[in-house]
Amino acid sequence: MAVIEIRIELKKGVADPEGMNTKKTLESLGFEGIENVRTIKMFEVTLDMPADKAKETGEEMCKKLLANPVIQNFSINVR
Amino acid sequence: MKDVKVCVLRIEGTNCEDEMAEAFNMVGANAEKVHLKQLIGKAPEELVRDLEDYDILALPGGFSAGDYVRAGAIFAARIKASLGPQLKRFVEEGKPVLGVCNGFQILVELGLLPAFEMTMTPEPDAALYTNDSARFECRPTLLRNDNKGKCIFTKDVAPKEVLMIPSAHGEGKLMSMDPDFVQKLEDNDQIVFRYVGPDGLPAEYPWNPNGSPSDIAGICNPAGNVMGMMPHPERVMTRFTHPDWTRGYTSQDGDGKVIFTSVMKQFLK
Questions:
Q1: B234 catalytic, yes or no?
Q2: In the annotation, is B101 catalytic?
Q3: In CATH, what number is assigned to the domain containing residue B185?
Q4: Any CB–CB contact under 8 A between A1 and chain B?
Q5: Where are the beta strands (DSSP E) in chain B?
Q6: Which residue in chain B is spatially nearest to A22 when comparing CA positions?
Q7: For chain B, how many helices (H) and strands (E)?
Q8: Average pLDDT of B221-229?
Q9: Tell me, what CATH number does A7's domain have?
Q10: Which one of B69, B80, B134 has the shortest CB-CB distance to A21?
Q11: Is A15 on the interface with B (CB under 8 A)?
């Protein structure tokens, strides 16, 4: 059994309106010193297979569904 | 006119299939709302349908599969997994495919648009991403026909004619990391509609509701038979849904109808 964490984030240079909007709102609540807010999406997938195979499978999952390669990068952490 | 069969394809969360089917019926087509499961045999026998039997495929708007993962991604992945080769054949035969709003997002995720190199790319070549405003933008928008004649959905629209077609979306910003993206679309005559302001000049927010580069609202594939657009032509089929219908708007038709009559002309032979 392997648990993989798949982290999907926007590529450098892609604007993150959700992050910017969240930053603005946090500032309006009085939080100070916020340099930047980025939104990141995380999937946790439990797989019935060894860890190395799980990582490979996770990569396939990203290519076929979880990430759009035009605007997003993904990284996989096997727990 | 021969019986033109339109497949208005839906899954859970699609919510503009009624208007889309009605729009095609209003211009003389025979539209049917079809669930994806009916096309892949996962339905009672009397409901099973074959994509090949249809002349036009329409992907309506909505929030298919709750817009989970990314808008349109789940619907696109399900189509690819179950119907990929048939859909590719459908497009290669030159049959019209229309995607509106969520349907446009699905076409991009499917790799059917912009599809520079091949009919259907294995990975998406573009993305429709969160509006610059980070909000759902819902209002009348003005679209200028910038196509030079390739797109079969705008054959009856005069060059540079402006149509009032409403937008309603949260993720409509067309993106690519290729710096020549817009130029490539332009060179291939793949740009169909651009948002313009009321003065006819390049649109600024809110006339461009999402921040799309070069104000792009709709594109077609290099063959011209697949078109995706964010605004909703099926919502303006009659004058009564034009915002100015009591204030001097004189035409009997809404501005969206011409898109449906244009594509129906293909079958008037």
A1: yes
A2: yes
A3: 3.40.50.880
A4: no
A5: 5-10, 30-35, 56-59, 97-100, 127-129, 137-145, 162-169, 173-175, 191-196, 216-220, 226-229
A6: B134
A7: 6, 11
A8: 98
A9: 3.30.1280.10
A10: B134
A11: yes
Q: What's the structural domain count of chain A?
A: 1
Ranges of chain A whose pLDDT falls below 50 = none
Tokens of B97: 């495919």
- Closest of B69, B167, B174, B68 to residue B129, by C-alpha: B174
Query: Structural domain of residue A67, as residue ranges?
Result: 2-78
| Residue B35 bears catalytic tag | no
B199 and chain A: CB distance < 8 Å anywhere? no
> Does B107 touch chain A if contact means CB atoms closer than 8 Å?
no
pLDDT 10s digits, B43-66: 999 999 999 999 999 999 999 999
Identify the domain containing residue B90 by its residue range.
Answer: 5-267
Which of B32, B171, B234, B242 is catalytic? The answer is: B234
pTM of the entire predicted model: 0.94
H/E element, B213: none
Chain A residue numbers with beta carbons less than 8 Å from the beta carbon of B129 are: 14, 71
Give ipTM to 2 decimals. 0.86
Residue B16 has pLDDT above 80, yes or no: yes
